[in-house]
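Journal club prep — side note

Before the paper discussion, L.F. wants everyone to see what a predicted structure for a comparable chain looks like in token form. Sequence:
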Amino acid sequence: MDNPVQADPTHRPWTAGRRLRAIVFAILLVFLPAEIICRVLTAAFLKNYTGAAIREAMGDLQRVALERMDGDDAAETLAKESIHPYLGFVATPGLGMGEKSYPVTRDRLDRQVGRGVSPWWLGLEANNWGFWSPHAMPYDRKPGDFVVAVLGGSVAQWLALQGETTLREELQQRVPGLFGRNVVVLNFALSGFKQPQQVMLLAQLLTQGVRPDVVVNVDGFNEAAIAYHNVLNAVSPDYPRADLWPFLISGLEYSNRVLSLQAAVFREKERASSVAGRAIRWSRASNILGIVFMTQARRIQAGEQVLQSEFHTALAEDLPAYREFAARGPSADLREDRWNEQIIRLWFEGSVNLASLCKGWDVLYLHVLQPTLHDSVPRPSKPLSPVERKIASTRAGTWGAWREGVRRFYPMFRAQAAALRETGVAFADLSYLFESTPDTIYYDICHYNQQGNEMFARAIAARLASAVAYEESRQP
């Protein structure tokens, strides 16, 4: 009988714990060199993928994903504007800066005016006419007042708030006879306003007895970007913004499709923010895992923006027949070959009509074409800082339509400058104001930080001083 095989005394059985340790060792053997190579390569050639860059980018993504989710309930993010019989919409009177649509959060404030700064306008509530102003309307003009009324969209609104001190002081210094007088800046600009809302607004102001000395109409971005977005969504370019107006006018009769899309948008916003948080956390330990989660977060964000576009399209379609005209307007079916003509006409004739209204009441009028981030034809309007390049490259969805609108129509606006001036309009093309400024000015696609608003206010004050001098030279 053969002897049984003797067991190898050096042999150790593969227990579950031993297998796990072996697997972990094998992974580390592959992963650690890969991690080291990744860190070296990103530091040398792909700086947008370093751990610090990932954390910064994902912090921005989280902010964008949650910027309209300012409450625990998704319903808190719905539009806070009120329908207006002549202007389309205004801010709901009494609403605070932190409560409005696109609220002024602490994070946004840090980018807008500087970290830790609390500006005077932060505590403002929308006044009795639905504008962000410390003055109730109609303004009770006092002897010696020099009143500047600012019209336009959100860039004009922030000029009147962020740039108010600079504008007032510059006018007092530059315009003869204003030194020591009370210069009052009245804000009649509102986020999303575009022509012909400014014309309708000035007509209402004059009808209500408001008599400014100067009207400054700051426009360009909304007349290009929002009007273009309107026609892409089968809403008349002269109607209020297509991503708000159909929502306001359609009431509560939403289909399951619209409600489902809205729910999906918020789910994807939350998911993108969650994955971005993982990218921030894991990037501290592993560059590779940070890149993996950052890529996933950006893919989710891109999908959310597609859903957002589908939501707005569905919202525009989800209208009772009797509200179709009210939401879309008479030119909703405007042929594409007439888009340029109609949008340019609205911008041009809107300014001519403002000038005529002002002339009739002996009010000085200045039309200002504002600078904007994506204005790059025939040349870039500003050398973009690294922060601005990131802003320019990461926006999509509705922002994409707005970007294309700017690139398409800004050259056409500038081409009309001479014709505007020939009609007697005092027109100031400030679209290249930041052309020699390498500093970060934009904190999003079109709005300026404190430095930018002060530069803008000084440039406008200089143009107003010239306009005043010109008008005085024409007096007999």
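L.F.'s comment for the group: Residues 21-62+252-318 form one domain. Keep this in mind when we get to the figures.
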